[in-house]
């Protein structure tokens, strides 16, 4: 309760805003609308130089309320946004863009496209660098929607093609969409930034029309230009493109190496490990081991059977050949303190055995090699496995017992 | 000094003023020798008195508005307020005589200092616009100076006053940046100028008149009615006649953007009374509403405390001599006596009584309450013994609910008026567009809020909390007996509580730091804070103000004991 009995205009609007905030956080949209109704009169005294003045506040809060609680749905929302557009010239483009997002969320692609076109042709107000950027964004999104249309046309064409029809108008439309899309998409990805969907779409277009060189250049720029923020996805896209193009293993590995450096837990690490193992070079094998260990450092991989099987396979190979045991030692050094609790606890042994036999098998193999035959994980799983008379567990037990001295050398 | 004489020739009472300042009869054009320096401020007058100054006659402005002076505006405000007060039950004498005379006196006193022109010209009289005799309105012409604009990126009104003072000489016949003639002069620094009229001062005037007549309305009541809209204050100027155009600086003068503050209104009233050289106000005797005995009774009822406590408040009042007419009556200009805030004083008396009986140290009052509860079990009398605990629960519940309501009202308070305002004529279209958008948006979101009816103005009532003895849930404590916490001592019922703690051992010098004591919630018991909060809510005033008066009374009450041992007594044995 407030002991403050004074009140002035500023204060009462501040307090009003608090009530709106509270209501919105509790998703009480009616109540929020009630207080917003009162707040709106602040528009008439919008002299503030504050970071966010009443008109912007009303735009953002009003949008949110109408989005969640409206009697007439999009119609009401649209009419509100139109009013907001006229309210502040400086914000016109921003409001348009956010409006477009709302429309897209509601699946109103055509309306979104119209809004973007309208915004593109808007020429009022001051010319500022912020405005330029906003305009570029608007053009880029229109490009994206042009791509979407292109894709639709393409789909129709392919279907018709199957039916034996030859639709010239659709084809022409498709090409025109391509041209429009290409221009805007190309523009936006020149600006340093994160443009994943734009890049993907652009590359898709280029590949379809056979311009692989341009596509490669775009992807290389996106991945390697230091002006752009570090973006693992860029390398993923490049990798996928190179793969599609049937590029050499060398270049594929190069692309994935960078990915491993930045995101060791990426899902492509399994592919990477597999690729590396297939190589004949020792260095690559070494890297492969590093890659797979690194991936399994992450909680998301704990129950990934494929990953564990890759590691198990590689460890098995090394143990049998007795070459490069130092590799295992190196990798294990930094992990011996915490991997046992992280992966090989007795609780996990029980759970893995109950839920996923293959997982427990692979893990047991790894545990047996790294922690020896006396580790609780291996003991429990192999015991259960043998009890259940599953053949491979018997073999597993034998193998680990046989190679226990190796463990001693690793742990040494 | 109304000029209500009948005309010598035609016996009509229909006077106008000539250029020379003489009265002339409109019916027969008989010119008298009577001159006047003071206008007839009869509020219901229908005469149109022309302005006088040395030299040019003023034309009507081309925007269809008439020329009007800022004090005419205030005169209208006061008129509206007086009418509202009359509607609330105040005697008509207030409007017709008292307020009127005070205002006239004010005008007299301030005219000498108010509008000295650079060339020495002085205004002799004022005009009162009468809309029925004015010509048709004509399209407005744009202002010459754009003082304030409405664009988003500009600063707010407060920063522009400096701009005003730097404008060059403003001639009377063209209003450059205000609808009123002298609005722009209003903010110019002028040492001779004292007591420039403001909106809060209108309430000071009202209160002064109410006090003179000893009407049963406290200042806190008055301010509360103003905030609630029963007394025109917030957007009074919308009731100005059409011809009195308001823009530019006028808005700064007449637009209210904050609730009136008790201390501010009260202090201004005192200043005003002194400035007008008013004599000693009519005595406040023990039959007056404002006398602590009466007000205590009212507040005890409102606070849901037993009627029996009234005996105790009267005793305290008598003991510290604050019931004397000399103490209570306002003598303007007398700097030696502390000026009494009747409502605050009464609240403080009640709190002191509560402290006397219950100690309020977050411990004793609860023990005492348990004790009373025990005694209540064997209570054969018709009335239950008062239990602090029960009272606390009931009041806390109500107070929290009311406070919550009040907080929401503060958040929902609407400031704008129906009539859109423009700072300058060329901004009119922008303002109207904005206004239209505001109305549209409010409609849109108003519908979304569901079936929220427009908040009806609650009927003006002097009581904010009411308790009825008919409630069977026992939530009304008026009739409860204090016997549960009293004991017989030499044939007299005395408080069981032997102790008392002083809010402060030493009073501050009020003139130096503005307060008698400094209240900080954390330094005092919760129960004390609770009762302060209760009265703070009822009076809409800071707890510290009530705390000041509590300290004052305590010091008077325990004066002797304090003198004996000035250092030791935090807790006093009674």
UniProtKB/TrEMBL annotation, chain A:
<dbReference type="Pfam" id="PF14929">
    <property type="entry name" value="TAF1_subA"/>
</dbReference>
<dbReference type="GO" id="GO:0006360">
    <property type="term" value="P:transcription by RNA polymerase I"/>
</dbReference>
<dbReference type="InterPro" id="IPR052669">
    <property type="entry name" value="SL1/TIF-IB_Component"/>
</dbReference>
<protein>
    <submittedName>
        <fullName>TAF1A polymerase</fullName>
    </submittedName>
</protein>
<dbReference type="GO" id="GO:0000120">
    <property type="term" value="C:RNA polymerase I transcription regulator complex"/>
</dbReference>
<dbReference type="InterPro" id="IPR039495">
    <property type="entry name" value="TAF1A"/>
</dbReference>
UniProtKB/TrEMBL annotation, chain B:
<dbReference type="InterPro" id="IPR021752">
    <property type="entry name" value="TF_Rrn7_Zf"/>
</dbReference>
<feature type="domain" description="RRN7-type">
    <location>
        <begin position="2"/>
        <end position="33"/>
    </location>
</feature>
<keyword id="KW-0539">Nucleus</keyword>
<feature type="domain" description="Rrn7/TAF1B N-terminal cyclin">
    <location>
        <begin position="74"/>
        <end position="241"/>
    </location>
</feature>
<keyword id="KW-0804">Transcription</keyword>
<dbReference type="Pfam" id="PF20645">
    <property type="entry name" value="Rrn7_cyclin_C"/>
</dbReference>
<dbReference type="Pfam" id="PF20644">
    <property type="entry name" value="Rrn7_cyclin_N"/>
</dbReference>
<dbReference type="Pfam" id="PF11781">
    <property type="entry name" value="Zn_ribbon_RRN7"/>
</dbReference>
<keyword id="KW-0238">DNA-binding</keyword>
<keyword id="KW-0863">Zinc-finger</keyword>
<dbReference type="GO" id="GO:0008270">
    <property type="term" value="F:zinc ion binding"/>
</dbReference>
<dbReference type="GO" id="GO:0070860">
    <property type="term" value="C:RNA polymerase I core factor complex"/>
</dbReference>
<feature type="domain" description="Rrn7/TAF1B C-terminal cyclin">
    <location>
        <begin position="258"/>
        <end position="448"/>
    </location>
</feature>
<dbReference type="GO" id="GO:0001164">
    <property type="term" value="F:RNA polymerase I core promoter sequence-specific DNA binding"/>
</dbReference>
<keyword id="KW-0805">Transcription regulation</keyword>
<keyword id="KW-0479">Metal-binding</keyword>
<protein>
    <recommendedName>
        <fullName>TATA box-binding protein-associated factor RNA polymerase I subunit B</fullName>
    </recommendedName>
</protein>
<dbReference type="GO" id="GO:0042790">
    <property type="term" value="P:nucleolar large rRNA transcription by RNA polymerase I"/>
</dbReference>
<dbReference type="GO" id="GO:0005668">
    <property type="term" value="C:RNA polymerase transcription factor SL1 complex"/>
</dbReference>
<dbReference type="InterPro" id="IPR048540">
    <property type="entry name" value="Rrn7_cyclin_N"/>
</dbReference>
<comment type="similarity">
    <text>Belongs to the RRN7/TAF1B family.</text>
</comment>
<dbReference type="InterPro" id="IPR033599">
    <property type="entry name" value="TAF1B/Rrn7"/>
</dbReference>
